[in-house]
Amino acid sequence: ILNVEQSPQSLHVQEGDSTNFTCSFPSSNFYALHWYRWETAKSPEALFVMTLNGDEKKKGRISATLNTKEGYSYLYIKGSQPEDSATYLCSGNQFYFGTGTSLTVIP
Amino acid sequence: GAVVSQHPSWVICKSGTSVKIECRSLDFQATTMFWYRQFPKQSLMLMATSNEGSKATYEQGVEKDKFLINHASLTLSTLTVTSAHPEDSSFYICSARPRGRSSYNEQFFGPGTRLTVL
Q: Each residue of B41-71: pLDDT tens digit?
């Protein structure tokens, strides 16, 4: 079992602001971290999978980093847009999920 | 591509009845499907792993006789909540892994099913 925690629980930002949130996990027995984007009433959508310490992934305005030695990953959104409003989930070792960060971007 | 559907999206039933939830991979074959449950303000919790043509593997604390899983084809897995009680009210969501993908690849999730037991 991997205890995955996410912070903050929720976040409100103005359109155009950049933001970031954290996923933390125990570094022992870790092998993979996934980020998902989950809009209300839709399916969670995979954003990134990272496995190596120092991994950085980017998709458009969204990027993520991984530090396996200290047990955390950051998700960054640059220039937030209203359509970025969603819950962002991370999971450690595929099956152990955090409670998510709910992002609301105010136009 | 990689679309997973779930049916129904919500269901209300009386205590003591059984409810079946379907999970379908629409445009790919899935040798493995996963079932999760999420209570309010909690994280997704893996209930069981469903492999096509074999018995499901249940996580510790999940009653296999209460949550029956059938994965009869490469595109369909079903979860039946038997003799449902109010404490079974939850959000149930499935995911599927395409055939041939490595275990590090992402799972493709369905949109979930909200079960309310009266």
A: 999 999 999 988 888 999 999 999 999 999 9
Has residue A1 got a pLDDT over 90?
A: no
As a whole number of angstroms, the distance between CA A8 and CA B109 comes to 24
User: Does the beta carbon of A4 lie under 8 angstroms from any beta carbon of chain B?
Assistant: yes
Which residues, at least 6 apart from A17, have a Cβ–Cβ distance to it below 8 Å?
Answer: A79, A80, A105
Portion 78-107 of A in contact with B at CB < 8 A: 89, 91, 94-100
Chain A residues inside the 8 Å CB shell of B103: 94
Strand B76-81 with B67-73, pairing: antiparallel
User: Can you tell me the distance from the alpha carbon of B111 to that of B89, in angstroms, rounded to the nearest whole number?
Assistant: 17
Q: Dig out the tokens for A100 from the structure.
A: 């998510």
Are A4 and A91 within 8 A, CB to CB? yes
Q: Are B17 and B86 in contact (CB under 8 A)?
A: no
The C-alpha torsion from B59 through B60 and B65 to B69, rounded to 10°, is 0
Cβ contact A97:A4 at 8 Å: yes
Is there a contact between B25 and B88 (Cβ–Cβ < 8 Å)?
Answer: no
Q: How many alpha carbons fall within 13 Å on the CB side of residue B102?
A: 5
Q: Which amino acid is at B94?
A: C
